Amino acid sequence: MLETTNSTPCAPPMIHIFSERCIGCKLCERACLFGGITVSGKTPMLTDQCTGCGVCITVCPKQALAAAEHKEVLQHSNLDAYRGILIIAEQREGVLHTVSCELTAAARQLADQRGTQVSAALLGQGISGLAERLVAHGADTVYIADAPFLQRYRTLPYSRILSSLIAELRPEIVLCGATTIGRDLAPRLANHFRTGLTADCTGLAIDRDGTLLQTRPAFGGNIMATITTPRHRPQMATVRPGVLQPQPVRSGSGVIVPLTVTEEPSDDAVQILKTMPKDKPAVSLEQAQVIVAGGRGLGDGKNFTLLQELAQVLNAEIGASRGAVDLGWIGHEHQVGQTGKTVRPKIYIACGISGAVQHLAGMQASDIIIAINNDPYAPIFQTAHFGLVGDVHVIVPELIHQLRQ
Amino acid sequence: MDFELTNQHRLARAAAREFARCELAPYAQQWDETMTFPAEALKKLAQLGFMGISIPQPYGGCGLDSISYVLIIEELAKVCASTAIIVSVHNSVCAYPIYVLGTEEQKSTYLVPLSRGEKLGAFALTEPNAGSDPASLETSAERHGDCYVLNGTKTFITSGSTADIIIVMARTDRAKRSRGITAFIVERSFGGITPGMKENKLGIRASDTCELIFKNCEVPADNVLGEVGNGLGAALDTLTFGRVGVGAQALGVAECAFEESVRYSRQRKQFGKPLADFQAIQWMLADMATEIEAARFLVYRAALLKDHNKPFAAEASMSKLYASETAMRCATKAVQIHGGYGCMKDYRVERCFRDAKVIEIYEGTSEIQRLIIARSLK
Amino acid sequence: MAPLQIIVTVKQVPDTTEVRIDPKTNSLIREGVPSIINPEDRHAIEAALCLKDQHGATVTALSMGPPQAAAVLEEALALGVDKAILLSDRVFAGSDTLVTAFTLSRAIMKQGAFDLILCGRQAIDGDTAQVGPQLAGFLGLPQVTYAEDISYADNVLTVRRRLEDCSEWVRVHLPALVTVCAGIRQLRYPSLYNLVAACAPDRIIRWTAQDLNVPASMLGFAASPTTVKKIFEPERNTRVEIIEGDPRTMVHQLIEKLRNLQAL
């Protein structure tokens, strides 16, 4: 047990230590990202920084570490009462978002493994016609709430209506697209049910015990984590568009259920005043055949003009890493990666991009990846097909020059 | 002996580092090539308190200790040695002497605007015939009624044409040598001050260095700083703090040269492996790292002694001497490691090299520093 | 009119953009990753300070973390916030986003009345963007996410949101919670004028679980619905072909190889 110097209730340790097995190799100490475990001689000790992630357990050669059991845990009673998978579909201006179809198809696969049903919920105005597509992707039931006050997404009316639906249906799993709507809505719903939510999953699977395995990048996208919500329902997850491959359409039958909904005064807490489409023409990165992308290694936002020159020669689109976008060098619409767009061009040229998993998640399916970076240790070289270790400010002009010949 | 930095030190260093990265780094090379005075950057630095770092808060300053001060100068110098010296001169050789020697009235008239960066400060001692031997200066200050009239030429004055407030050392008594010199607080607006042409220098090129020609410049008698005839002694005392600032500047330049060398030697390959794998290069880098650590602790310790109100003249000279010579050695090695590319303006190290050479000379040459150190030995 | 009471949540995170791979072992180099203030929290602080500059406000920075997280609160004070509260207790360790939001909500209720809560949209270590909306849920506040620009008049905020395909302007009455993403405003730098006060002892208010009057069963790892089952490094393969030589040679070879693959 950890020593405490004050009288606060003591937190149970998350990792159980079998000191007698420790050989003092300190692999656990080196593996921990957080400084959560130290080894003194042959005695491992948890520090305040332990987050219970369990990496140390996986690297210990002597099984001296194990996940601790917890008896004192709040859990939802009667987990078995929750069955089925619910997709929260989304539409904008009457157009169904592709992520909703991707999720419905993915849910179909998961539901088949669980032997259960897939339902989808869609809110909006004048959207009844969209239900068929969700059925076509595998939904057994589609719940539609069609009303003028739902025309554009707002947190409160949408979460109010969907909370009632979820409370009634009691799905074991709720999936939502990780779009600006989904990332605003899903946490609010998860909070309502005091349940677990995992954002931006790159993989979903059913575990042996029937629970949902939610895999996503962690530590800023540099490692992967598999997360579960063992004792709370529904298990909620959001998934980025384009991450789960669209499945072949199955011609199925499904039931469409209209929901009766009424407006409430509290819905108006946030009023939409106006919208304006983005100034710049939509960047069609997802359709591009060639992408030239820049990252923090460019050193200065001005150097994107250099990449634009290269893009012009190659008839390419411009992409960017999150680092470059965060620094304000280029707009968010060019961002490729976990929190940006997922792309599959023939050629992807990464200039001054280090290659964190966060970025790779968005472009690793490219046919040919070329990396230009002056740091030979940059992770991008683990994923690229061709690597040029050198100064991007020298190589790119040279590339432009030779391509023009 | 506690070598740990306090939270104030860390925050000060982080603030300077962030500012340098965002506001100095994109422009420093251009400023160097075109000899452009970084006026906009200085305005922003002033708003953030960088022009009154150690001046107490009642006088418009930030009240930070000397270690915070050297950390700040070091971080600025890593990116732009010119900006660093402008800030350093303003803080430690103009504002600081007024704080130590000034009357309350002088402090409220001059120190407050200087601390807030509303006015830029400079220090004029050197003359064409009085460099290492300041006691031989010839600029005269003749008493006429309730003011002094200054005539003479000062040379190599940092911020010479841009400063609003200049501490000028002038001779009030021809019969005496060093005891005949008085310090004056001179406002450019007094008139009778003509800046010469901006010097086209080897290094520290964004700093505005020029001659100042005083012709019948009338300075009110109330603007005598300290005592009449005690100017040189007072000046040399306050220059001590300035030396530590220059030591910090040199440290920054040395660190820049070193970091660039490490980066380059990891990346550049010859004979099938990175330069960093060759022992000759490794030894050069090891020497650079060691000397920088030694310089660091000389500089920080001099600052610490000052904060503890202990005598620190010898330590200040040691820090300026050793840090500036270290910067020169590191910059030379850095250019060598970069090979041909080290001679190109595209690469950072050639500016380190030129800046380091100037730092070895100004604010008291290495020779003068050695004199001071020798005198302190018993 | 009384000044606005604004609370900004801030988090200390590892600088995940500085992580590198050891080519010999093909694994993450975990040592020496520096800790920084979450970048979007800086934007939230900036939004709060802009409102303070324009309309007058008392800005309180609130953070939950280990004792060394006090560093980000000192940074916040150096930027110009008025008060800083650190929630630090072993019991909080291992909190997922729901429990983090819960813990923060209790601290906010303890510290007294407020008009506006500003959060960075997401943290660069977790990237979930969940704590803000969940905090709004616990406090029963209307929420506005993806805020790029905020203006205020007469107890009403007008917020411009950055959505995928458009910008959306919304209006909300205070009290409310807004999550801020990197916007058009340039971040102010820490001011040296604030440092002495920022580092004064007891400047940061420190609360433990006991101060919040919440049982341990509702805090930390034990109370978190989500749990990490496994952490693994993504498969890294070594299929890369490093092209060597000086820039001219490298580029020449690259173009040749691409032509051979009929990619050009």
Per-chain topology:
The complex is a heterotrimer of chains A (405), B (378) and C (264).
Chain A: E1 15-17, H1 27-31, E2 37-40, E3 43-46, H2 55-59, E4 65-67, E5 85-88, E6 91-92, E7 95-96, H3 98-114, E8 118-124, H4 131-136, E9 141-146, H5 155-169, E10 173-177, H6 182-192, E11 197-201, E12 203-206, E13 212-218, E14 223-228, E15 235-239, E16 255-258, E17 270-277, E18 290-294, H7 304-314, E19 317-320, H8 322-326, E20 347-351, H9 357-363, E21 368-373, E22 386-389, H10 392-404
Parallel strand pairs in A: 5-8, 5-10, 8-9, 9-16, 10-15, 11-15, 18-19, 18-20, 20-21, 21-22
Antiparallel strand pairs in A: 1-4, 2-3, 6-7, 12-13, 13-14
Chain B: H1 7-24, H2 28-34, H3 39-47, H4 66-79, H5 81-101, H6 104-115, E1 121-124, E2 140-144, E3 147-158, E4 165-171, E5 181-187, E6 193-198, E7 209-220, E8 224-225, H7 231-267, E9 269-270, E10 273-274, H8 279-307, H9 313-338, H10 349-361, H11 366-376
Chain C: E1 4-9, E2 12-14, E3 20-22, E4 27-29, E5 35-37, H1 39-55, E6 57-64, H2 70-79, E7 83-87, H3 97-111, E8 116-120, H4 131-139, E9 143-153, E10 156-162, E11 166-173, E12 176-180, H5 195-198, E13 204-207, H6 209-212, H7 220-223, E14 227-232, E15 241-243, H8 247-260
Parallel strand pairs in C: 1-6, 1-8, 6-7, 7-13, 8-12, 9-12
Antiparallel strand pairs in C: 2-5, 3-4, 9-10, 10-11
Helix pairs in contact in C: 3-4
What can be said about this structure in brief?
Chain B has 378 residues and is α+β, with helices and mostly antiparallel strands.
Strand content of chain A: 25-35%
Query: Would you tell me the structural class of the helices and strands of chain A?
Result: alpha/beta
Task: Look at the helices and sheets of chain C and give the structural class.
Answer: alpha/beta
Number of strands of chain A: 22
3D shape of chain A: globular
Strand order of the largest sheet of chain C: 11-10-9-12-8-1-6-7-13
Task: Determine the number of helices of chain C (DSSP H or I, runs of at least 4 residues).
Answer: 8
Determine the fraction of residues in helical runs of chain C and give it as a percent range.
Answer: 25-40%
Mean pLDDT of chain A: 87
Q: What would the average pLDDT of chain C be, to the nearest integer?
A: 90
Q: If strands are numbered along the chain, what order do they take across the biggest sheet of chain A?
A: 11-15-10-5-8-9-16
The strand count of chain C comes to 15
